[in-house]
Amino acid sequence: MSVNIFKVFVIVYVVIGSCAYCSTSSDRKSDESDNEEYQSLREGFDQGNDDFTANFLSDVIDENPNTSAITSPFSVLFLLSQLALHAKGESYKQLANLLNLRSRYDIRVMVPRYLDDINSQRSVNFSLAERVYCSMDYPFSNAFKRDTRNTYHAQAENLDFSEPEEAARMINAWIASKTNNLITDLVPSSSLNEDTRLVLTNAIYFKGDWRMPFNRRMTKKSDFHVTRKHKVSVRMMNQIGHFNYSYLKNIKAKVIQLFYKDGNFSFVLVLPNKGHSVRSLSEDLQYIDLQNDVINQLEPARVNLTMPVIDTETTTDLADILKKNGVTAIFDYDNSDLSGILKHPEPLYVSSAMQKAKIIVNESGSEAAAGNAAVLTTKAALAPGEQTLEIFDANRPFLYYVLFKNAPIFAGVYAGPL
């Protein structure tokens, strides 16, 4: 039986490119038209990412109540977009619907521009990319090789899966080297065998320094209330400063936004009222727009912020989550129709889909990795006299996001140390 082993891993792949030429008026008009098309497609994809992120996080919380978790639905979508280019029938329809993109042309236009944008950030260490591993005896179709190279700026490598220990060692060594050893020994040799045809990997990595770092001398051990009856002692950071902040009645939560040095990336904490659980909060967020109804509602404020140091690693089985979000056909041996991937088509289906993610948030900033990603600027400073001190004490479970230009690339829940 032919099996398509589909894994999501944490790796790093950096794209660097340049192009210089003298532009004419017609060139500029063409560039403007191309940019408008890209921005329109990106807005659609970002909306799909917002919706998927809300559903994904809610599903993870349902499966693991009172447990910290970190996820990257964003990176899952990029991986699925590569499948969508070569899927047919119901598989393609379901994937395109989740991506919120209308056609394969849209994917080929949007993805490389998005990758170039997100990988070109200079004040943070960030990258998003793909790598494909294929059995030695099953060459890729020319179309798949072309898209891997041109659309995803990715590499394809042939491995001998009949030697599973060596194949796993090579994949794991590469993953570890590209993630600053945040993720090691991700792929067990038991997951590979002579029936493995394909391993698709997707990576997202982020390390950023705060625009306003925390003073380590202000970090103290304090109680964190996991539930009303259970508390643990954690390291809590503290600073008083100017942040984008608001209390949002519609979700019964305080929200605060911390910027990283580059200004395009930010960290958003959503702290529910006492008695309002993160599970209820995650359900509320499924019915609103993260950018318009949350981020755009924040205003400059002087805040006394207390939040825990976060060090969380999560492995998530994507199959159930994707099925709940309408992606079922790729897991069905009889109906997956992924035949466009290989030069000599044979039945392929997704036998497993996993994501492993890790995030560290401390006084200096954040480091995160996950596998299977409108310019944000700070608002005006407070005017004289607007010096009311707001209190944001994250001493109970909360949700958080790492945003790139208001698009969530990581989403998590903190409910105490694991």
UniProtKB/TrEMBL annotation:
SMART domains: SERPIN
PANTHER family: GH10112P-RELATED (PTHR11461:SF211), SERINE PROTEASE INHIBITOR, SERPIN (PTHR11461)
GO cellular component, one term: extracellular space
Keyword Oxidoreductase appears in the UniProt entry: no
Keywords: Protease inhibitor, Serine protease inhibitor, Signal
Keyword NADP tagged: no
Domain Serpin, first and last residues per copy: 54-417
Superkingdom assignment: Eukaryota
Signal peptide: 1-20
GO MF, one example: serine-type endopeptidase inhibitor activity
Protein name per UniProt: Serpin domain-containing protein
InterPro entries in the record: Serpin_dom, Serpin_fam, Serpin_sf, Serpin_sf_1, Serpin_sf_2
Family to which the UniProt record says this protein belongs: Belongs to the serpin family.
